[in-house]
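Many introductory courses stop at the sequence. We go one step further.
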Amino acid sequence: MVKDKTTRTVLADLKKENQSYILGRGGAGGHGNHYYLSNELRAPTIAEEGGKGEERELILEMRVSAHVGLVGFPNAGKSTLLTTLSRAKPKVADYPFTTLNPHIGMVEYNDGVQVAVADIPGLIEGSHMNRGLGISFLRHIEKCLCLLYVLDMSAKDPLWHLEQLQYELEQYMQHLSKRPHAIVANKIDLPESRSNVELLRNSVKLPVIEVSGKEHWNIDSLKQEIRKLHDRFASYNSQTT
């Protein structure tokens, strides 16, 4: 996507392969010294400058940054999951807002397919009103084709976390939370997580993948779900374009 830097007007939105747009035109060409070569003037030392072309200040934005985005509250374990799934090395710590910029890792499969997964900075209640840099983080989610809601199952009410995350996405952009998605029930290794998982499964009609990023538990099942999301979107996209 190309925007005018001053007005923020969208000048071009390139969605298809080989699509192009002329953002500025060059000036008329000049003449080098060879143009003035003649029988009388064998070594001309004069030249003509070309005309001045258009000058513009533009903003270039990627419409898509990753196939799958990890969406969750701070400290849900998104960065730990990304390090387990890929070779990416985002900062991991036990305090909120460890991640301030998205990190992207490539999940590799035996058939050669690679799926880009983004660790999105944590959202909080009121993110759609730009609390905690929320708008900036939501814009990164907008650039992900599919979503994984990463929930800390040791939290007091993971179901409320899921509902709040979906609410924030919908308030920012209608239907954003409805993109192909699944739920990652993380930190399943903690004792308090088991009862929360059962409650969550009984409350939603979505795939729930129980994992422990820290203990590397059930990561293969998560990779399979990521591949399903990727292939599902790829199939849908090929039918609509």
